[in-house]
Specification:
Shape: globular
CATH architecture: 2-Layer Sandwich
Largest sheet: 7 strands, antiparallel
Number of domains: 1
CATH class: Alpha Beta
Order of helices and strands: EHHEEEEEEH
Number of helices: 3
Number of strands: 7
């Protein structure tokens, strides 16, 4: 069994603000190197279970990154994730936003690596490095 990938960090923001910046202002901090278009005009989390996670390119083309499984603002978000991969190779990401002192602890847990067979372990390792870079930009935006 391949263990979940967990990334946890504290931010100097309220739970509600941390959730909103992740879900409603993603295009402001998401690195363009981790997008399909290379210059998205929008990154949208449709705010409901069953909603899409979509990158909109500068030409208006939409690129599906995943699907929202649970939408529980401001404390929790869970989604099927397949950015850069076929939907059949999706993993699952759960992000929780919990109060800690005057700020928020953000915890991201990504699972489903076993479903990828031999590619699971190396993809998990690469994804860990990607989340480190991505979350550092998120923290700087708050």
């Amino acid at each position: 069994m391949i263990e979940p990938l967990v990334v946890e960090f504290d931010v100097d923001a309220s739970v509600a603000h941390a959730f909103d910046v992740w879900t409603r202002n993603c295009v402001a901090w998401w690195p363009t190197s981790h997008t399909v278009s290379g210059d998205p005009s929008a990154i949208t989390f449709e705010p409901l279970a069953g909603g899409r996670i979509v990158e909109t390119g500068p030409d208006g083309a939409e690129h599906l990154w995943g699907e929202v499984l649970d939408w529980e603002p401001p404390g929790r978000l869970r989604f099927r994730w397949h950015l850069f991969f076929d939907r059949s190779e999706a993993t699952e990401v759960e992000i929780t936003f919990s109060p800690r002192g005057d700020g928020t602890v953000v915890r991201l847990e990504q699972t489903g690596w076993d479903n990828l067979g031999p590619a699971g372990r190396p993809r998990r390792d690469r994804t860990g490095a990607a989340w480190a870079a991505i979350t550092s930009r998120y923290i700087a935006t708050l």
